[in-house]
Every structure is written in C-alpha cells, then in structure tokens.
Amino acid sequence: MGNNRPITIGRIDYTNVWPIFHYFDEKRLSGRAEVLSRVPSLLNRALREGELDIAAISSFAYAHNAQDYLLMPDLSVSARGRVNSILLFLKKPLNEVLNGKIALTDTSATSVNLLKIIMNRYFQASPQYETMEPSLDKMLEAADAALLIGDSAIRASWSNTAYEVIDLGELWHRWTGYGMTFAVIAVRKEAAAQFPDIIAEIHGQFLASKQRSLQHLAPLVDKASQELGGEPAYWQRYFSELHYDFGAQEQAGLDLYFRYAKELGLLDHEVDIQYWSDQSVAQVKE
User: Fold this and answer.
1) Same fold, 7-79+180-284 and 86-176
2) Helix or strand run (H / E) with residue 142
3) Which terminal CB of the chain, N or C, has fewer other CB atoms within 10 Å?
4) pLDDT at 123
5) Inter-residue contact 256 to 122 (CB < 8 Å)
6) GO biological process: any one (predicted)?
7) Distance CA 183, CA 213 (A)
8) Which three-class secondary structure string do you get for 43-94?
9) How far is CA 265 from CA 48, 109, 166, 251, in A?
C-alpha cells in the first residue's frame, strides 16, 4: 500500500489502558494515523491479520504470534498484586468450584489461561470450562463460577453482594511472588521497518502519556467516575495499583506465565521476546 497510507493503531477498549492513551494524539504525528478502540479479542485478531500496525494486545495473543511482533519497551498493563478487573466470581464454595464448571469470558485469552494455570498448578484441579459472553447473571446460571475481565468485572464487583470474589492478579502474586502482565504494546515487524520515524513518535507519545497520566491522576479519575460510575476514591486506587512499565519484574512474571502455558499445552512453543528500538533493530532479551 506504500508509505502514504495511514498507520493503524489499536487501543484496548478498557479503562486499565487509559494512562497510555489518554494524552496520545494521532494528529500530532508527522504522518497520518488512525486509532481504533476494540475489546482485546478483536484487537488481537486485527493485529495478527495485518489490519493494524501497532496495538495494545493481550499478553497471550502476543505469545501466539511473537515471531511477527516487536514489543514496545517500558509499556504494559501489569499488576504486582491486586488488579481489580480480572475477577473470578464464585456462586458455590471454592472446593465445589474446583470440581465443577467455570464460565469464561470470551473477550481475552490472557486471563482465561491465567485462570487455567492457577487451577491446574496452584489448586491442582481440573474444572470444566465454558466460554460465554460477559454477563455475570447468565454465566452463573450455567456454571458454579464466572471469570470476568475489564470494565465488565469492575461493574459486577460493585453490584455483587452474593458471591465470593477472587482477584487473579492478587492470587498470582501471592503464589509466585511475581507481578502479572496482562497487556503489552506490540508493533508488526514490517510496520516497524516501513515506518521507523512515525513508530518512534508513537512510542514517545505513549511514554509521555503514561508519565503525565500517572503524575496527575485526577483527569482519569474524573473521566472514569463520569463514564463508568463509581466513587473517585475507587478509581484513584484502581489506577494507582496498576503498573504501566515493563521492567525486569514484569518480564520475569510474564516469562513464568509463558512457561506454565507451554507446560500445560496452552502454547505450543517457547516465547522469545523481541523489542522494538528507535534504531529499528530488534533487541532480544537475554
């Protein structure tokens, strides 16, 4: 299509990625760009099929197609404990859930496979799974527990008065001692080679947006309260407990997650993470 086509950028349509995108402005780039907001599963597919050049995608989707992507350094959606939006709602006691049925959200594979890893390795259990649209009431009509993620999980946690809730980020950290990275920013290798300058601008804007957002959370807190409801104190804690870097701690936790996924047959290959750099050279993590 040539270098005159617009760069296509995918944005996860969840609150947890707001700090990276809040101050991002594609109109300030030196070339044309389009931003598309979707749930993780749709962004994952669009990047894989080349409909997007760069996107915030789920960590598991990155693992599946790592050979085609470069990761943008210092950017992720991670938690070093409670994540608040990856939640397992239990209709029955945990010991019954472990031998029962769990309804899984159909919007992201990362959290679904995190749950399967936890169930197998931490609880040493093998429940049945059924994938459904993210509606807590309907999911729990058909199952003993339900996994919700993102804004659906947040809203359900506010209205829930009947069910025990397990935060998977908190449980993963308590079990492994590591944080968990739920989403990364990936760029297709051919786009990085074809558009090095504008990709560098995008990366710079993402980093600047992250820094500015986290230094002054009030605009994000106000926006979340107005658009999704909830008290400002909730959103202040929510954004403060997430981590948006991708340093050694996040990388180690993600490496462990990928290793468990490979051992359980959820992945059919080992993941060799490669990073984008502003010299357009992949830096392989040692």
Assistant:
1) yes
2) helix 136-142
3) C
4) 97
5) no
6) menaquinone biosynthetic process
7) 18
8) HHHHHHCCCCCEEEEEHHHHHHCHHHEEEEEEEEEEECCCCCCEEEEECCCH
9) 21, 14, 24, 21
How many Å apart are CA 107 and CA 88, to the nearest integer?
Answer: 14
Q: Please name which of 64, 73, 80, 285 lies closest in space to residue 182, comparing C-alpha atoms.
A: 80
Give domain limits for the chain.
7-79+180-284, 86-176
Q: Which of 145, 140, 136 is nearest to 118 (CA)?
A: 145
Which residue, among 1, 44, 38, has the nearest Cα to 21 in the 3D structure? 38
Distance of CA 184 to the CA centre of its chain: 7
88 close to 166: Cβ distance less than 8 angstroms: yes
Distance CA 245, CA 64 (A): 22
CATH 3.40.190.10, domain 7-79+180-284, yes or no:
yes
**Residue 79, Cα to own-chain centre: how many angstroms?**
10
Homologous superfamily of the 86-176 domain (CATH)? Periplasmic binding protein-like II (3.40.190.10)
Confidence (pLDDT) at 3:
59
Q: Which two tokens stand for residue 195?
A: 């558009």
At 137, give phi and psi (nearest 5°). -60, -45
Rg (CA), the chain: 19
* Of the candidates 43, 24, 19, the residue with the CA atom closest to the CA atom of residue 238: 19
Q: Contact 50/69 with Cβ under 8 angstroms?
A: no
CB within 8 Å of 257: residues ≥ 6 apart:
59, 114, 117, 180, 181
